[in-house]
Amino acid sequence: MNSQYRNSIQHQQRVKKREEEPVDFMRLSDKEIASCISEMGIPFQASDILKPNPQVIQMVFEHLGELVMTTTRDTLDPAMRAAAEDVCSEFPEIVPTETRLLMGFFVQLRTMLEQCGINDFSFSDLVRPTHDRLAKILSYAINFIRFRETHTSVIDENFNKAEATKARIETLYTENQGMEQRLEEMKRNRKAMEVAVKEKMRRNDELKARLLELRKGQERVAEQLERAKAEKARSQATLEEKTERLVRVRQESEKLRPYVLQSPAALQSALTELSDNLVREKAQIDSLERRCRALQTSGDSFTFVQNDVHNCVKVLEEIAVELQKEEEEDARAAKNRDALAERGNNVREVEQNEKLLQRQLKKWEERTEELRRKHKDRDEANKAKMDELRELQKHLREERAEKGREMDRRKVRIEQTEKKMADLKDNIEQEVHSAHEEYLKLESHIKLYITEMEQSI
């Protein structure tokens, strides 16, 4: 009876201890954790969880990170090396390579475990792991991997859609950048062509004004040349006439010379007259020579002017050629303007395509946001369902604990009743034994009394 009572008390203490301990429904047993890690290709036993080795645990975590995030220490090495060079490039030996890689891997691993439900992961879990913490972290990670494997199709589908959308966005962004560069280049070419066209038009206007001035100058020079030619002709005719008159006067003087010598007075008068005529003739000859030299000079000037006129004509011809070139350039400019207008239309089409693609991108973003919202609603529904299941489990556990306590109380009562019954049984047996002894005593007394009576009779 005492042993049964002690066993019941120990059972109650164990039940009470189990009720006081927090129960984590996601926690796995050590053997199950070891088997799951061994299935991943890492030799692992339950004793490695009871007595964790930091090197082995770090290797396990690194394998989990590579499995879930495709991240290892080697992939983190370039980024961590660049960060170390930026922070302490002069003293690289301050932070060893292994420590640097371990710290970078710890940051990535903490992000992954936050998604798994471990929000208090610390660096000591890598360098000084304990049994309880390690079992909890590995249990959550394994449950997350199982959940991920059960929803691989949905995750891959959403991931592929996200990657396709991302690739499409990058393609559209690249095309947009190319179109913008082409548009900027076309705008620059248009501005350069507009400047060149304005310069050509200004130069054309200047050449036209210069051509008009040269034409007017040519007309004035031609008029002056005609007047000079007419004056030269008149001067030459006058000179020839004066020369003929001089020759005739000399001939007449030679004819009259014999007659003049016969009379001194007449000769003197004739001489005086002839001297006067000679002076007048010399003066006329000098004036005619000066006029001839002036006419010669005018003729030379006219020749020079004629050469200038020829040069002006050549310049006008060159200007005509330049004007023809300008007209050709104007035609090319018109073609370029047409091409520019066509390119402007192409740019507008590109802008319309860009707007259309942006609208499509916005629709895809809205669809993605809708999928995220649905996924979030689904997660919230699953979370609510999980909370309900937890509440139900908690309620069932409470009922089970209550029933266990009731059973323990009933067991105690039964044991107490059994003890009382045993005590009563002992008392009854003692009473029966004492009554039997009394009966035996009475029987012996009766027999003795009967014997004495028989003897007395």
How does this model look, in words?
- Residues 24-163 form the Kinetochore protein Nuf2 N-terminal domain.
- It is found in: Chromosome, Centromere, Kinetochore; Nucleus.
- The protein has 10 helices and no strands.
- Residues 1-23 have low confidence and may be disordered.
- It is 91% helix and 0% strand.
- It has helices at residues 2-20, 30-39, 46-50, 54-69, 73-88, 97-116, 124-127, 131-150, 152-262, 264-456.
- The protein has 457 residues and is an all-alpha fold.
- Among the domains are: 26-150, Ncd80 complex, Nuf2 subunit (Actin-binding Protein, T-fimbrin, domain 1); 177-367, Helix Hairpins (Orthogonal Bundle).
- Helix 1 (2-20) packs antiparallel against helix 10 (264-456) and helix 9 packs antiparallel against helix 10.
The share of residues in extended strands comes to under 5%
SSE class:
mainly alpha
CATH structural class of the domain at 177-367: Mainly Alpha
Identify the CATH architecture of the domain at 177-367: Orthogonal Bundle
**CA-to-CA gap between the ends?**
57 Å
What is the 3D shape? rod-shaped
Q: Approximately how much helix is present in the residues?
A: over 70%
- Rg over C-alpha atoms, rounded to the nearest angstrom: 67 Å
| Overall pLDDT | 76
